Amino acid sequence: MANTKRSQAEFVGLMASLMAIVALALDALLPALDVIGRSIGTADPTENQLLIILFFLGLGSGPLIFGPVSDSLGRKPVVFIGFALFILASLLCVSATDLQTMVLGRILQGIGLSAPRTISIAMIRDSYSGDRMARIMSFVTVVFILVPVIAPASGKLIMDSYDWQAIFYAQVFCSLLVCLWFWRRQPETLAPVNRKPFKFNLFGQGFKELIKYRQTMIYTLISGFITGSFLVYLSTSQQIFERQYGLDESFPYIFAGLAITIGTATFMNGSLVMRFGMQRLITLSLITFFAVSLTYVLLFPSGVNPQVSILLTFFGLQFFAIGFLFGNLRAMAMEPVGHIAGIAAALTGFLSTLMAVPISTYIGQYVLGTALPLFIGFSICSFISILLLGVARSEDLKEWRLKLIRSKA
Fold first, then answer.
1. What is the pLDDT of residues 63-88, one digit of tens each?
2. Which of 301, 312, 286 lies closest to 381 in space, CA to CA?
3. Which own/partner contact pairs does 314-318 have at CB distance under 8 Å and 24+ positions apart?
4. How many Å apart are CA 282 and CA 293, to the nearest integer?
5. What average pLDDT does this structure show over 340-346?
6. 108 in Cβ contact with 71 (< 8 Å)
7. In this structure, are residues 341 and 126 in contact, taking their beta carbons and an 8 Å threshold?
């Protein structure tokens, strides 16, 4: 029994580490956005946001390749390919002297890291199902959340001690360590009997199979709206706290504190999901997310930023709600499609990212002198998500009634 616990604990740690490189590539760069912008010849904050937002574009599109390949070759080889691409892209970023080259490097970084991120989800689905899968996903996410707690401060320390290029070298070093651990300790989770021959039309076949599952599609759409609204925060947090509030030195610690609220909720979710189930937690969290953001809009409609302590309170409440959403939404989307876990993880991730990138780009352009547009975006995205959840529940109720009628007949 002790060996099983140790094995599961290592599995959680390793899956979290595969995801954590993504957080490191995102969050460690936040304190350096202005410095990098000046180095590559841009001072426009909306252009600097592209270094975060377009990373997500690569992160969402890469699984379309890596998902089907992993269903054919197995999970482990794809992770190694992804890390190799990430390292090459990081070197491209280091040598960048203009915005176009840097953006290309960031997109390729995202594509590369989409492999370990997607495969970690597929490996969890290979090994677990139902609420147990949600529980493992929660524990993986809470370990993964620890990286945003320390990444901005680490990025600022590295930049102050050396230069912004050193942040990319640090990311490469960490990815090599995780890759070595994965190679030595993680067995393949996709049995040869479950592998599917790779075909060029596999994506089309997978999509046709995926859209048959209403639950998967609805929860993927909800994930897209929530991810999009949160991505606005990620891409604008530096300019909100450093430019609007003048908290340059405090920003890494503020970011860390808000990340802790997400991590706390995610950790609690690991236990609460076994007691209340994913659907109840998702419903309550979406309503809370909407209520908090709408309250901010109603209290501060003029656009004048409140005291930073008030802003942090609202952010903290919202991110606490988000902590119950990320893992549960992904688990609910993946639950019916375990038989195509690789391509399903790829497609659901792509669809949610395809939504999130334009949402965050559009809202982010208005977050210049005030945080109000951010909360308006939160309100709209969460409200639409609640409507989608209502559609899912009404359809489930119809199916339940039909089954009841058939059983009586």
1. 888 877 888 889 999 999 999 999 99
2. 286
3. 314/375, 315/233, 315/258, 316/257, 316/258, 316/261, 317/288, 317/292, 318/289, 318/292, 318/293, 318/378
4. 17
5. 74
6. no
7. yes
* DSSP string covering 12-42: HHHHHHHHHHHHHHHHTTGGGHHHHHHHTT-
Q: Return d(Cα 44, Cα 24) in angstroms, integer.
A: 24
What distance in Å separates the CA atoms of residue 66 and residue 114, rounded to the nearest whole number? 8
pLDDT for res 114: 92
Q: Give the integer Cα–Cα distance in Å for 206 and 186.
A: 27
Joined tokens for residue 256: 């860390």
Q: What is the mean pLDDT of residues 206-218?
A: 85
Q: How many C-beta atoms lie closer than 10 Å to residue 98's C-beta?
A: 12
Quick check: 138 and 15 in contact, CB under 8 A? no
Q: Which two tokens stand for residue 166?
A: 């050193």
User: Residue 4 carries which side chain, given as an amino acid letter?
Assistant: T
Cα–Cα distances in angstroms (integers) from residue 389 to residues 100, 115, 339, in the given order: 39, 29, 24
The alpha carbons of the chain give a radius of gyration, in whole angstroms, of 21
DSSP 257-303: HHHHHHHHHHHHHHHHHHHH-HHHHHHHHHHHHHHHHHHHHHH-TT-
Summarised one tens digit per residue, pLDDT across range 350-362 is 888 889 989 999 9
Q: Is the pLDDT of residue 400 over 60?
A: no
Q: Please write the tens of the pLDDT for every residue from 195-209.
A: 877 776 767 777 888
Q: Is residue 343 helix, strand or coil?
A: helix
pLDDT at 327: 79
pTM of the model: 0.81
Q: Which secondary structure element, helix H or strand E, spans residue 59, and what is its range? A: helix 45-61
